[in-house]
Amino acid sequence: MNLKRELDRRITEALVAAGAPDRAQALVSPSARSQFGHYQANGVMAAAKKLKTDPRELAEKVIAAADLSDMAEPPEVAGPGFINIRLKPKWLAGQLDKAVRDNRLGVGRPDKKQTVVVDYSGPNLAKEMHVGHLRSTVIGDALARVLEFVGHDVIRQNHVGDWGTQFGMLVAYMESLGDREGSGLSAELADLEEFYRKAKERFDADAGFADKAREYVVRLQVKKDKNARRAWERFVEQSLEHCEQVYRRLGVLLIGSDVRGESFYNDKLPSVVEDLDTAGMLVESQGAKCVFLDEFKGKGSDGTDLPVIVQKSDCGYLYATTDLAALRYRCDELKANRILYVTDSRQAMHFAQIFAVAREAGFVGKDVRLKHVPLGMMLGGDGRPFRTREGGTVRLMDLLDEAEQRAFKLVSEKNPDLNEAQRSQVARIVGISAVKYADLSRNRTSDYVFSWDKMLSLEGNTAPYMQYAYARVRSIFRKEGLDETAAEGGVVLGEPAEMDLAVKLGQFPETVQAVADECLPNLLCGYLFDLAGAFMTFYESCPVLKAPDKARRTGRLRLCLLTAKTVRSGLELLGIETLEQM
After folding, report:
1. pTM reported for the whole predicted model
2. 115-119+138-161+262-371 CATH, one of 3.40.50.2300, 3.30.479.30, 3.30.70.1650, 3.40.50.620
């Protein structure tokens, strides 16, 4: 059960019964005394202001009308009109007993299931994935996992860059190497960055090659030449294999069938322009076809009106055209109710314009929710975008290699008794998880400074700390040779630390729902960190294996079991692996 939602529902009903407007909300949240099962309703004062009545008097009426007898002690009015609610230990224990038997840990399903399209990762296939793709990839993956878990139908879309003039250069260079069917070309493509560099060097230095590259663009995009198409397809296939290696290593759930590159929408672009023209939305400006909307007047960097250019003067199309085609496809073909774009915050204006044009043109239904999920940047210690020491782009594979190497050194220092194979396995999980969690644990809209020391620390809100917390809970059962049947029985809540842990465990459903609603994975990271802290306090205050009697021993083991399940489930939703032993 979602504690907050249930309290909100009941107090809101009581507010309305007491004469408050139908739009009144209880705004129930854990109070400062939440460690003893206390919640507080803060919406009475706003409702009283609308009714022009005394807040405390309205609060008394709400208490009289509220039906909380099964779950809480009699509510009390505090301060200028707050309502304090204390959960009954027996009721809360019953909720935890249900949760521990439930694979969903009490997370309910939505009243109305949605089809949610999540657009994330989206690398440029001309080059290898670099650190700039990390945030979109891991945050988008976590959001997709959470939305699936709460019960929505999720469609992942990887909008890769696989079209444009640079591909003429790359395909021309690939063809110039020969060995079209042998292993030599595959070896050349093994390092995409180097392949791109060599192609660009030749393009800049060899006029004949540059002309051939431009010819390939025409053959590929205009003449639909079959040989050029086959060469392009081979290059794209090799490039996607690079991406899939990164996804597998990161434990990201993107697969080949999720790819919808720019090329996929190429034949749909003319109809986008035609339909905008038919709708009377197109304006010619300096030879280009544009859409000007009132809401973007004066929004240009120089104070001019900001257009959405959908076709250049040379008849070429732009990102905006492709994104409009993608939006229409996702609504018409995928039947999306909600579409999330997980990209760099610097694209905020672009998506604001695309969404506005799509709605104005009728490409998107009125009930479809469109949301840009903006991301801050990963910065180096100098406060600038994260780079190599030489100032170059950091390849994502290189970053993951270093993460595992550093984690291996850490594991070897902490657990020298583990054999090398075991240390390598732990290092892989800890290293990759540390990189991902460092992104996920921060508000996605904020820039953050990359720090190996912080992300691999066993202290603070880090992946190693959370993985250690999980392993420590599991060790209670392992060291005594106990299985989960040792925790069969009811939860008994008496001590303050037990109640604190119980309330925190009961907040898992509302936290997961908040992540799904607000697209903020850091809320789940913060919750798990607080849960680990509540468990440590409980463990130090309340002996588990040496509890005073069998009932309390079983009840405390049950709290331990639910804590382990909750931490593991929460980390899985974030795409973070757990370890039974560290």
Report:
1. 0.92
2. 3.40.50.620
